[in-house]
C-alpha cells in the first residue's frame, strides 16, 4: 500500500471577492509539481460563490466533469441547450468530449459551496453529454452511496462517466468503521473528508483533509465524529 497525504491547509487558494476557491491539485495560478493529479483525477476544487455570482460562459474539452453542490444551488446553462438547477443533494455530470461551453451561477440568496471534479476520459473526441440526479432519498446514514460509475459498470442508481472511475458519498456517525474494496487493483482511491474526523489506514483526517491510497485491494475507514466523506476511485495510469 502506498499513500499521499494532502492536508486541507496545503491546498492552493484564490480569493476573487465573489469566489473563494480551494484547489487540491494544480489549477489556474496555483502550481505544485507534486500535486498535478492523482492517477486520472485531475481537479478537485472546493469553491465558495457569493449569491448571484458565478462562472460566465467558458469552454471545456475532453474531460469528465462532476459537480457536487454541498450548500446552495447552481444554475447551469450549456451549448447543448441544457438549462438546469442543481441543488445540494444532487450530483451533475458533464462529458465535455469534442467540446462544450457552459456557465454556472449561484442562483440562491445564500453562499454556494460546491465541489468540482475533473477526471480524464478513457478516450478523446467523445460526444458531449449532460446528466444530473437527486441522491438525497438514497443517502442512508452509515452507508457509502455510489453516485458515479463507468458507463460499462453503471449501477441502476448511479450516473455514469466515460472512465473506469467510481465516486461514493457517505454520512457516518461517530464510531462507525467501514471497509472499501477497490474495483481494480490498478486503481487508487482519493479520500476527501468533507466534514468531521476520520482515520484512514492510520492517517488522521480532519475537515477537508485528503489522502490518496493505491497499490492495495481495500482500505479501512473509521469515523471519530459525525462525518461526511467523498471517495474517488480512479485508474492510476
In DSSP terms (H or I, runs of 4 or more residues), the helix count works out at 0
Pick out the low-confidence regions: none
CATH class equals Mainly Beta
CATH fold descriptor: Jelly Rolls
Shape: globular
Largest sheet: 7 strands, mixed
- Give me the Rg, rounded: 17 Å
Query: Structural class of the secondary elements?
Result: mainly beta
Q: What is the percent of helical residues?
A: under 10%
Protein name: Pirin family protein
GO molecular function, one term: metal ion binding
Family: Belongs to the pirin family.
Organism: Christiangramia sediminis
Summarize the structure.
This protein has strands at 2-6, 12-15, 19-23, 41-49, 54-60, 64-71, 73-78, 83-87, 90-95, 100-106, 112-119, 129-134, 143-150, 159-161, 166-172, 177-181, 187-195, 198-200, 203-205, 210-214, 218-223, 227-235. It is mainly beta. It has a single domain (2-235), classed as Jelly Rolls.
Structure description:
It holds the Pfam family Pirin_C_2. This is Pirin family protein. InterPro entries: Pirin, Pirin_N_dom, Quercetinase_C, RmlC-like_jellyroll, RmlC_Cupin_sf. Residues 147-234 form the Quercetin 2,3-dioxygenase C-terminal cupin domain. The chain has 237 residues and is an all-beta fold. It has a single domain, classed as Jelly Rolls. The chain has strands at 2-6, 12-15, 19-23, 41-49, 54-60, 64-71, 73-78, 83-87, 90-95, 100-106, 112-119, 129-134, 143-150, 159-161, 166-172, 177-181, 187-195, 198-200, 203-205, 210-214, 218-223, 227-235.
Amino acid at each position: 500500500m502506498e499513500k499521499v497525504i494532502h492536508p486541507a491547509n496545503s491546498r492552493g487558494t484564490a480569493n476573487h471577492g465573489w469566489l473563494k476557491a480551494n484547489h487540491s491539485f494544480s489549477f489556474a495560478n496555483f502550481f505544485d509539481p507534486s500535486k498535478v493529479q492523482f492517477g486520472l483525477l485531475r481537479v478537485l476544487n472546493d469553491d465558495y460563490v457569493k449569491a448571484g455570482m458565478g462562472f460566465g460562459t467558458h469552454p471545456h474539452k475532453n474531460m469528465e466533469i462532476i459537480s457536487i453542490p454541498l450548500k446552495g444551488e447552481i444554475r447551469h446553462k450549456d451549448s447543448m441547450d441544457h438549462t438546469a438547477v442543481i441543488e445540494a443533494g444532487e450530483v451533475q455530470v458533464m462529458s465535455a468530449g469534442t467540446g462544450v461551453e457552459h456557465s454556472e451561477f449561484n442562483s440562491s440568496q445564500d453562499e454556494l459551496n460546491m465541489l468540482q471534479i475533473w477526471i480524464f476520459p478513457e478516450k478523446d473526441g467523445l460526444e458531449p453529454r449532460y446528466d444530473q440526479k437527486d441522491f438525497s432519498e438514497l443517502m442512508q446514514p452509515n452507508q457509502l452511496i455510489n453516485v458515479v460509475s463507468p458507463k460499462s459498470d453503471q449501477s441502476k442508481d448511479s450516473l455514469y462517466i466515460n472512465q473506469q472511475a467510481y465516486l461514493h458519498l457517505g454520512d457516518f456517525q461517530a464510531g462507525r468503521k467501514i471497509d472499501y474494496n477497490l474495483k481494480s487493483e490498478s486503481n487508487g482511491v482519493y479520500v476527501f473528508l468533507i466534514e468531521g474526523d476520520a482515520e484512514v489506514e492510520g492517517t488522521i483526517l480532519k475537515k477537508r483533509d485528503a489522502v490518496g491510497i493505491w497499490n492495495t485491494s481495500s482500505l479501512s475507514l473509521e469515523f471519530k465524529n459525525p462525518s461526511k466523506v467523498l471517495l474517488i476511485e480512479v485508474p492510476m495510469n
